[in-house]
Design brief:
- The complex is a heterodimer of chains A (about 325) and B (about 550).
- By secondary structure, chain A is mainly α.
- Chain A has a domain at about 100-270: MetI-like fold.
- Chain A contains 13 helices and no strands.
- Chain A has helices at about 1-30, 35-45, 50-60, 65-75, 90-125, 130-145, 150-160, 180-205, 205-215, 220-245, 250-255, 260-270, 275-305.
- Chain B has about 550 residues and is α+β, with helices and mostly antiparallel strands.
- Chain B has two domains: about 20-50 and about 60-230 and about 520-545, D-Maltodextrin-Binding Protein, domain 2 (3-Layer(aba) Sandwich), CATH 3.40.190; about 285-515, Dipeptide-binding Protein, Domain 3 (Dipeptide-binding Protein, domain 3), CATH 3.10.105.
- Chain B has helices at about 1-40, 135-145, 180-185, 245-255, 270-275, 305-315, 315-325, 355-365, 400-410, 420-430, 450-455, 465-470, 475-485, 490-505, and strands at about 60-65, 90-95, 100, 105-110, 115-120, 160-165, 170, 210-215, 220-225, 235-240, 260, 275-290, 370, 375, 380, 385-390, 415-420, 435-440, 510-525, 525-530, 545.
- In chain B, the strands form five sheets. Chain B has a ten-stranded mixed sheet, with helices on both faces. In chain B, strands 4-5-7-6 form a four-stranded antiparallel sheet, with helices on one face.
- In chain B, helix 6 (about 305-315) runs antiparallel to helix 8 (about 355-365) and helix 13 (about 475-485) runs antiparallel to helix 14 (about 490-505).
- Chain B is globular, with a radius of gyration of 28 Å.
- Classes of the chains: A mainly alpha (about 325), B alpha+beta (about 550).
- Chain A: Belongs to the binding-protein-dependent transport system permease family.
Chain lengths: ~325, ~550
């Protein structure tokens, strides 16, 4: 097991290097001059050639793409992700700070989505093709399809503007978490519920479930102990993907709810052609997904003792 | 066993209860959500019709746009730009009508050949208690700007500022610049207390003092009780940043903020119907098309003045303003805000709407309607690429579509190319890839010659090479505009620039103005004393107060 984990962690290095090359290359080849964007923003009008030249020098954009990549990569190896083109502050502390805000939403949203998804999925599977199942399937389909910006605005209009129950946006007390967490949790809850339903349905028709029923086990035990546990492996994979997306930052939700997380930072960075921040966020997201993927793989072995993790030789 | 049995029965009963009631509750909830979302028009707490008494707590929350403060370097501008919290002040002030008024400088004078002398206001103190004097102005304004390449718009050099006495300072630009008092109104030229950390804790002379800043969330300032002018009415202002315009409006409707900056046209009616005030500033921005008159094939069709003339004639600006922009603009054709041109604004006549004449002009130029209605000449179709636009394509919608339909009526085809932000738009300017370039621009200082010089002038330095290589009208325009560069008198400069704009718009037709735009501010009716400014970065908050309503 240790060898497996070590190998997976080592694999992170070439993955992140590949991602950094791709990100650095693509963002630098995107149309638009970050020096112009920076200088124009400062001037509140199209920048003059002098202002653009000044900005180019300030932002370290002089020289070719390859030498700039190696300069950046050399510093990144020492933990220095460069200086933001927009704020002129170091990227790494900014990323850490923003990731903290994102986690404040992502963790409760992930928990809430699980709390909704698993019972809904089980009920839907157990009551297959009955009215309850039909209704839940429609609701989960709607939940998975509704765009988050629309849901966010709808929740603001109803709960903040009409009823005045919660603030419309911004970080504050516990009540300020309600709308963004609800919005964030909706799509993964719907997707996971559908996943749970199909996974439980599949196991409900398995021989061991039939055997358990034949032996007179109560339905709750059949579903909870036999069906659900065996359905967990695909479910954990889906959870991992959802959690990765949540921790990676939800740009729309963070923008609408004025939540200064990673997603919002990425949107701002793209619009400002803030290459160091874009590269930093991609590295962060890549690392998050890789770690979650590793955790998911490790969980397989915990959930299903038949699965053994070994390092390939 | 009994316990377990009981639990199972209880759970079953609860389950049945939940199922039947949850269905009802769910139905009611969904119905309420939809009904509430679809409803509207009622008073959403927009305050009262009258605001008679001042509130005990003079506290205001402002909903601003994206937090774009720079935190480090010579450009650090926390609390100054783009949200001006009135922490630090400039030597001169830009009024909403584009007049220059004294601020930290009581008066100023031009001293030939190229020096401006500023006489500072006495008895002014920074928030840290230190006095405003010529040395502070030298260090934190002129020497700071001199560190920027080219010395900023004012052309400051390391030896430009000379302290004459405690309250007098001379400024000599590195190149002739007769527009300095008009330029230093811009908040990038504020004066700080010496030693101020301008990116983290700005200290100025303004009516409000810095309190706290949470990046991307809020900036808080409080009243400066030792202000040199009339003390601010508000004790505290919190600026909250809402990048999304819808969220900003909803925050106002929810009562989370008292004022929002940058209301969009479609939101105006809704806000007013819910009992909120929407105030318009005088015109300070414009929407216009620049014609690529110097492009190579395939972007060389606009070299023909007749085509530019026809485009101008084919656009119904009244319909554009009333129908497309929902009345939230004016049909001005000056590009530069009319009031900035003073009494010379009428020198720019603009082009009347006349699609029959547009067709005649094109007929006379040899452009004949093709089978698909688009005109042709020598086997070439009159189809133009419209690039939308500076400031991002989103802010221009649906104007490009309207232009496309209007121009098609006279046989001109338009392909719309949208760019999501100014940087990617600029890359098309750089490469000259396009025929018509749709822009929004703002006048943020009192130097009326700045934009025409930056974008179209080839007679001296300071122009944008990328713009002039596509849009420079040529020697006649340069000849008219050149005296403005060396004219210290503001009135004469207005006259010269108006002549140049007449040449640019009415004669050369390089710029096709569409509309004059104003800034729109939404607020609760309890907010009093707010003066809408066409340049958001010059807003003043010291006259604002909060009433209690009826």
């Amino acid at each position: 097991m240790r060898a497996y984990v070590a190998r997976r962690l080592l694999l992170l290095i070439p993955t992140l290097i590949g991602m950094s090359i791709l990100t650095f290359g693509v963002s630098n080849l995107t149309p638009g001059d970050p020096a112009f964007a920076f200088a124009s923003r400062l001037a509140s009008r199209p920048a003059t050639p002098d202002e653009v030249a000044e900005a180019r020098k300030d932002l370290g954009l002089e020289g070719g793409l390859v030498p700039r990549y190696f300069r950046w990569a050399g510093r990144a190896l020492q933990g220095d992700l460069g200086i933001s083109f927009s704020t002129r502050l170091p990227v790494r502390p900014e990323l850490v700070e923003r990731a903290r805000f994102t986690l404040q939403l992502a963790v409760p949203a992930a928990l809430l989505s699980l709390l909704i998804a698993i019972p809904v999925g089980i009920v839907s599977a157990v009551r297959r093709n009955r009215l309850t199942d039909q209704v839940l399937r429609v609701v989960t389909l709607a939940g998975a399809s509704v765009p988050s910006f629309w849901l966010a605005l709808l929740l603001i209009v109803v709960l903040a503007v009409k009823w005045g129950l919660v603030p419309s946006a911004g970080r504050g007390g516990a009540e300020s978490y309600l709308l963004p967490v609800l919005t964030l949790a909706m799509a993964p809850a719907a997707v996971l519920a559908r996943f749970t339903r199909s996974a439980v349905l599949e196991t409900l028709s398995s021989d061991y479930v039939v055997t358990a029923r034949a032996k007179g086990a109560r339905e709750a035990v059949v579903v909870g102990r036999h069906a659900l546990r065996n359905a967990l492996v695909p479910l954990v994979t889906a959870m991992g993907t959802s959690l990765g997306a949540l921790i990676g930052g939800a740009a729309v939700v963070e923008t609408v709810f004025v939540w200064p997380g990673i997603g919002r930072l990425l949107v701002e960075a793209i619009l400002q052609r803030d290459y160091p921040v874009i590269a930093g966020i991609v590295l962060y997201s890549g690392a998050v997904f890789a770690v979650i993927s590793l955790v998911v793989d490790l969980l397989y072995a915990v959930i299903d003792p038949r699965i053994r993790l070994v390092a390939e030789r | 066993m009994r316990d377990e049995h009981f639990r199972i029965r209880a759970t079953g009963a609860l389950g049945r209860f939940q199922l039947s009631h949850l269905r009802k509750i769910g139905f009611v909830l969904v119905f309420s959500l939809v009904a509430a979302a679809c409803g509207g028009g009622d008073d959403g707490g927009g305050g009262t019709d009258q605001a008679a008494q001042p509130a005990v707590n003079q506290v205001l929350t402002v909903g601003a746009g994206e937090d774009q403060f720079v935190r480090e370097g010579t450009s650090a501008n926390l609390g100054v730009q783009p949200v001006n919290a009135n922490i630090a002040e400039t030597l001169t002030y830009l009024t909403p009508n584009y007049e220059v008024r004294p601020m930290l400088a009581e008066r100023w004078e031009f001293r030939a050949p190229n020096t401006w002398r500023f006489f500072l206001r006495p008895n002014v103190r920074f928030h840290d208690g230190s006095p405003l004097n010529a040395q502070a102005v030298k260090t934190t304004l002129f020497d700071r700007v001199a560190q920027q390449r080219g010395g900023g718009t004012i052309k400051a050099g390391p030896n430009s500022a000379v302290v004459v006495n405690d309250l007098t300072i001379d400024f000599t630009p590195t190149a002739p610049n007769y527009r300095v008092p008009e330029q230093v109104v811009h908040p990038s030229n504020v004066v700080y207390a010496p030693g101020t950390d301008t990116g983290n804790k700005p200290v100025g002379t303004g009516p409000f003092k810095f309190v706290e800043y949470a990046p991307k969330e809020r900036l808080v300032v409080e009243r400066n009780s030792d202000y040199w002018g009339e003390e601010a009415k508000l004790s505290r202002i919190t600026y909250r940043f809402f990048p999304d315009a819808n969220a900003r409006r909803l925050a106002l409707e929810a009562g989370d903020v008292d004022v929002v900056l940058g209301v969009s046209g479609p939101d105006v009616k809704g806000l007013k119907s819910r009992g909120f005030e929407v105030m318009n500033s005088p015109v300070g921005s414009y929407q216009a098309i620049y014609a690529n008159i110097l492009g190579g094939p395939p972007h060389d069709l606009l070299k023909e003045v007749a085509v530019r003339d026809a485009i101008n004639l084919a656009i119904d600006r009244r319909q554009l303003v009333e129908g497309v922009l929902e009345g939230q603009a004016t049909a001005d054709q000056t590009m530069i805000p009319p009031q900035a041109l003073g009494r010379y604004r009428n020198k720019i006549t603009g082009t009347p709407f006349d699609q029959n004449r547009a067709r005649s002009v094109l007929d006379a130029a040899g452009w004949r309607p093709g089978a698909d209605g688009i005109r042709e000449k020598n086997g070439r179709k009159l189809t133009l690429q419209l690039i939308s636009g500076f400031g991002g394509a989103e802010v221009h919608k649906p104007v490009p579509t309207y232009l496309q339909s209007e121009l098609r009526k006279v046989g001109i085809g338009i392909d719309i190319v949208e760019r999501p932000d100014s940087a990617s738009y600029q890359s098309l300017i750089d490469s000259g890839s396009g025929d018509l370039f749709l822009e929004r621009g703002s006048q943020n200082d009192a130097n009326v010659g700045f934009l025409p010089t930056l974008l179209f002038y080839t007679g001296g330095s300071g122009a944008s090479a990328q713009y002039t290589k596509l849009f420079a009208p040529g020697p006649r325009f340069d000849e008219i505009l050149t005296p403005a560069v060396t004219e210290p008198d503001a009135d004469k400069t207005q006259s010269i620039v108006a002549d140049a704009m007449h040449q640019l718009i009415d004669v050369d037709k390089v710029v096709i103005p569409l509309a004059g735009l104003f800034q729109m501010y939404g607020m609760k009716k309890t907010v009093q004393g707010f003066t809408p400014h066409p340049s958001t970065i010059s807003l003043r908050w010291d006259t604002v107060s909060v009433g209690t309503g009826r």
